[in-house]
Write a structure and sequence with these properties.
Length: 462
């Protein structure tokens, strides 16, 4: 398809409505200024990667330089830059970046960049975002970006009395912490509170743990928090008479929560001979399973992280931190359970909510160093770390919905089959059109195995 002649690119207004009465000149000028801003890109999946990129460019915000970054291989991460990011660098490592379409978040259309190796995730999130769009899109909120830094104190003679001493000198402790990060304080963030927990027993004996509660603004915050913890530890030793060992942030960021809500009209769920009501019932049973059974909840939550991690990776954030926080939060009641909640509202709509710790940044770390991460952030057009976190939970809720719908209906394998077959075809050496041909025949035969792929490839090559 020629992108230039795609009517969706030249004749859509911000709300995605056609505007046939506008002159081409006016429309082009408006497009240049505002982009199409409609994430409902029908047929996007049928384009080739170059055409898709042009369409993404027309959405808004990206220039030719950004396109070169994304298409230049390795996300244009040079070996020199990579060598400064981690130790012992010998190369860089590519992963596919896809775009999840159809997302509408608080009334704004968003194209969501996802970096991930697993087939069906981008398609599933896009499909679910379309269902949610039918119910008015995602609605989000988040808490202030508060994180906790911990200082472990041992050999404290009278822990309860020491706790009082620490709290009495809170202002002094906070001032010392904030002296480490003037820029954060200048932006309205910084250490805001001190808390103390006492553990009367542990495998090594009693300990006292001081918390610094830090507002990280648009940073993920790990470096600032760790510096603050290290800076206040000697003062805490002096106050308590104890010895400080660990001084590090906590990845259980339960004060830095992001929330998303999605309403899906039951009529939108109708598919493949199943009524919307039947699909909704299946989804509710899938949710109920995850709500009560930790074995299922783990997989259910993995399905949520399928949507979140790819956005975290695309934007250069720390996905291990987010994973750690997510699963700890899922166990906060004492039993590991589903991170999402699904209900039926008074009109019978399916309503999903997801509230979870989400510590991401839009400044600092790899977000600034990796050119593709910069481009991903530019495409998302987020003004704050909170806004990015909110988009992440939308992607998580979308992936969750897509997985539950598929599992409750046709099963997960059917959707996976085509891409899985193509991966097997490539693994046995198929190139170009042969990949599709070998994959098509294996799917037709319902025999998707490397041995069969080799046979078919040999047959085609003859
Ligand atoms: C596969 O990557 C994710 C699922 O297992 C999630 C789920 O079971 O809900 C399909």
């Amino acid at each position: 398809m020629s992108v230039q002649h795609d009517p969706r690119l030249v004749a859509s207004d911000e709300a995605g409505n056609h505007c046939a009465d506008h002159s081409l000149h006016f429309r082009e000028a408006k497009k240049k200024k505002m982009g199409t801003k409609n994430s409902r890109l029908q047929g996007f999946y049928q384009l080739n990667p170059f055409e898709r990129l042009q369409m993404v460019k027309s959405f808004d915000g990206l220039n030719d330089e950004d396109l070169r970054t994304l298409h230049g291989g390795n996300g244009s991460l040079t070996i020199e830059r990579a060598d400064k990011m981690i130790e012992n660098v010998i190369g860089t490592y590519n992963l596919p970046m896809g775009i999840a379409t159809n997302f509408q978040v608080n009334g704004h259309d968003k194209l969501v960049p996802m970096v991930v190796e697993e087939p069906s995730i981008v398609a599933g999130a896009s499909y679910a975002a379309r269902l949610v769009r039918a119910g008015g899109g995602f609605h989000t909120s988040s808490t202030p970006p508060l994180m906790i830094g911990q200082v472990q104190l041992v050999n404290v003679a009278a822990p309860h009395s020491a706790r009082m001493d620490i709290l009495a000198r809170k202002a002094e402790i906070l001032a010392l912490a904030n002296a480490q990060s003037r820029s954060l304080v200048g932006l309205g963030g910084g250490a805001q509170d001190v808390e103390v927990n006492i553990f009367p027993t542990s495998p090594m004996g009693p300990m006292l743990v001081a918390h610094l509660v830090v507002d990280c603004r648009d940073a993920m915050g790990a470096n600032a928090i760790n510096s603050m913890c290290e800076a206040v530890a000697p003062l805490l030793e002096e106050i308590t008479g104890g010895r400080a060992y660990l001084r590090i942030l906590s990845n259980l960021t339960d004060r830095r929560l992001a929330r998303a809500r999605a309403v899906v009209p039951v009529s939108a769920l109708e598919r493949d001979g199943l009524s919307g009501e039947e699909v909704a019932e299946g989804i509710m049973w899938a949710y109920a399973f995850a709500a009560v059974d930790p074995y299922r909840a783990t997989t259910h939550n993995k399905g949520i992280m399928n949507g979140i991690d790819p956005v975290i990776v695309a934007t250069g954030n720390d996905w291990r931190a987010v994973e750690a926080g997510a699963h700890a939060y899922a166990s906060r009641s004492g039993q590991y359970t589903s991170l999402s909640v699904w209900e039926r509202d008074a009109e019978g709509n399916l309503v999903g909510t997801l509230e979870m710790p989400l510590s991401v940044g839009i400044v600092g770390g790899a977000t600034k160093v990796h050119p593709a991460a910069q481009t991903a952030l530019k495409l998302l057009n987020v003004q704050s770390a909170n806004e990015l976190a909110e988009i992440c939970v939308c992607a998580g809720l979308a992936s969750n919905l897509a997985a539950m719908r598929a599992l409750a209906c046709e099963g997960i394998q059917q959707g996976h089959m085509g891409l899985h077959a193509r991966q097997i075809a490539m693994a046995v050496g198929a190139h170009g059109v042969m990949v599709d041909e070998v994959a098509r025949r294996m799917v037709e035969e319902r025999n998707i195995k490397p041995a069969r792929a080799e046979e078919l490839l040999a047959e085609i090559r003859h």
